[in-house]
């Protein structure tokens, strides 16, 4: 028997995925982003156990906007795929900096919504299990989460130290 008390992220995502197989539920969750229609998402959020957990609510609303799961694609890696870096600049730099400037969960949610809508238009999936872990760490380790996202967006790949590989 395991004494592991870490949350099971995959169980929530499985419930979420099953709930969003119904088009009406998915549409209701997309209404979360407007304060005037947010109440229409509450029945679905209640069904998946996210009604009183802001992090799960945000994840569900983002997933409803763009349910394409792609393992290993963090927020930083997803943003990086939105364009090609030229002369040290990336077309999404300013938007990504704004996302990293978020201090509270509500502001972060709005910035993530903006990014996920853009990723959806470009057909770029993200790792929702990883995003759920990031959202869970946000309250106490927000700077660590931001640093991981920033590294995925800005840090250059380190070349192979094998000199023979460089000659190939």
Task: Give a short overview.
With 168 residues, the protein is an all-alpha fold. Helix content is 60%, strand content 0%.
Helix and strand layout, with pairings?
Blueprint: H1 9-19, H2 23-30, H3 42-47, H4 54-65, H5 75-80, H6 93-100, H7 105-122, H8 128-154, H9 163-167
Structure description:
By secondary structure, the chain is an all-alpha fold. It is globular and about 50 Å long. The protein is built from nine helices and no strands. It is 60% helix and 0% strand. The longest helix is centred in the last third of the chain and has 27 residues.
Q: How many β-strand runs?
A: 0
Spans where pLDDT lies below 50 across 5 or more residues: 1-6
Major β-sheet, in short?
Answer: none
Proportion in helices: 55-70%
Euclidean distance between termini CA atoms: 51 Å
Beta content: under 5%
Tell me, briefly, the overall form.
globular
SSE order: HHHHHHHHH
Overview features:
single chain, disordered N terminus, mainly alpha, globular, 168 residues
């Amino acid at each position: 028997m395991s004494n592991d008390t870490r949350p099971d992220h995959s169980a929530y995502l499985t419930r979420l995925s099953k709930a969003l197989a119904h088009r009406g539920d998915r549409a209701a969750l997309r209404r979360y982003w407007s304060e005037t229609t947010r109440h229409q998402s509450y029945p679905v959020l209640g069904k998946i156990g996210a009604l009183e957990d802001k992090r799960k609510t945000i994840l569900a609303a983002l997933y409803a906007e763009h349910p394409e799961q792609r393992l290993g694609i963090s927020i930083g890696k997803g943003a990086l795929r939105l364009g090609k870096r030229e002369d040290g600049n990336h077309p999404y730099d300013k938007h990504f900096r704004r996302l990293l400037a978020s201090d509270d969960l509500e502001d972060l949610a709005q910035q993530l919504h903006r990014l996920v809508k853009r990723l959806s238009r470009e057909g770029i999936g993200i790792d929702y299990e990883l995003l759920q872990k990031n959202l869970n760490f946000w309250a106490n380790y927000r700077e660590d989460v931001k640093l991981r996202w920033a590294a995925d967006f800005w840090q250059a790949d380190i070349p192979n130290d094998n000199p023979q590989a460089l000659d190939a």
